[in-house]
User: What shape does this take?
Amino acid sequence: MSTTTVQKSATADQAPASAAPRKVRRRSERSLVGTLASHGILTVASLIALFPIAWLVFLSLGPDKDDYLHPGRIWGKMTFDNYSFVLTETNFFDWLKSSLVVSLGTTFIGVIIAATTGYAVSRMRFPGYKKFMWVLLVTQMFPIAVLIVPMYQILSELQLIDTYLGLILVYCSTAVPYCAWLLKGYFDTIPFEIDEAGRVDGLSPFGTFLRLILPLARPGLAVAAFYSFITAFGEVAFATTFLLDDEKYTFAVGLQSFVSEHDAQRNLMAATAVLIAIPVSAFFYLVQKNLVTGLTSGGTKG
Amino acid sequence: MTVAVQRLRRSYQKYWYAYAMIAPVIVVLGVLVLYPLAYGFYLTLTDANSLNTARTIGVNEIEATYKFIGFDNYADILWGETAYDRFWSHFIWTIAWTAGCVALHYCIGLGLALLLNQKLRGRTFYRLIMVLPWAVPTFVTVFGWRFMLADGGIINSALETLHLPAPQWLEDTFWQRFAAIMVNTWCGVPFMMVSLLGGLQSIDSTLYEAAEMDGANAWQRFRYVTLPGLRSVSSTVVLLGVIWTFNQFAVIFLLFGTTAPDAQILVTWAYYLGFGQQPRDFAQSAAYGILLLAILIVFTSVYRRWLNRNDQQLAI
Assistant: This one.
């Protein structure tokens, strides 16, 4: 009996206490007009963000190659024919395979190689540290034009043009420094005390990294992996230049081939684009919040 | 004495590990970046093109016949006879493109982030929708935009219904540039928005309360609390934005192909020289690449120095 009253009074006390600071925190009380304006702007922005994609989906349902010019006609004859055609009659699955092989290969090599480096630059201040970080930053900003000609020459001398390996190697040149940056940011968020505890228990720096830090860094590794996957998946210039056989095309190149070779098949292009976009964006939504923290966290001193 | 020796040994041990751990990346960067870069630089000093480099036609191996010509390529690009048409006009457009896109990305991104940072019903929903342009691969969305910008596409149809002039987005130089900036802005805003939203959420709310106690109005709170609080995130995303926009290949390449010589930024122009024409001019293309890298390195150094002078840090 007494307990209930006590609880009751406790909740009664808590309610105003929690409401009061909220009221204070709300800066100058927003007027109704302000709220409506915010909603209005956000709605317009959302529509602008959504429309091109929604339009692509809509066009992909039109069976005729020129339907994009007469969107009104699509309503009467919506069909999934484009999709079945793309899936059965084109090289869609070859392109899927190429895209996956190249992207996963890049991801795998990129993350494995970059992990130790990310850890080293996060925990150790060695002579040349600043220069090394600078080099990593500089490789981030390599325009494709810097490397594409020499890489083309080198790959053709090594007979690696039109091979997956060639493309994976090229992508690693951007993925590796990229992952190292991302992982450094993530390692920075893991308390240094864990390393110290590991060292006290007699682990070597590498042992600490392998046994203690790597398991803790799994989310960070996942983000780095995802980022390099997406980067490799969406890359256009190298893929366009280094892949010749249309069965080896990645999606980024394959999608272009609808335009250049069979100029008019825009309905099929739209369907292919939707088929590519849906799984990738679904996947993206799962990790998007971590992407930003991975990219901008971990202040660098120097 | 023994302490000093011990410290030395410990530091040696520490450095040894550090170097061993960064070794894989050094090897990869050396083989995949530095060597091609050096090779590329060497190519810029030659007159290499697709007709005189080593190649295999059928069973015939043809030896490379290009020769060393020193810095002629750079001289030709920077102050040769048609330097303005080929380099400087693209250079000016690239600078305008980068500045315009990044300014739009940042301002729109910041505006949306501020709106989303209020207590507002459905803000998670808004955010999820507005991240969409970032989620979909660029090469997919650019094709979507091409449908919309085409002559009889939805945008022009809509403009005509409103009795507004319908520009030739994909043919007329001015509108090509306009369209390119528009599409790239659309692609780049979500990243800025999400990053700045993260920055806004990390600003201590007591600062706002204190400012309000002191009688600061909304603008003053924005100017003296929000903007300084966003500094490190801002400086990072602006740098990344500049680098990415400057190097933005996919949007322009996929929007116009090689049909719009005047809307090409330096990166796509260099690609065109190296791979979009016959004979392929490898030497000049590589020289453009080196020039681009030099521009970016200079920019980044100046930017960092400027940040350091203002006691700011790059959050990457």
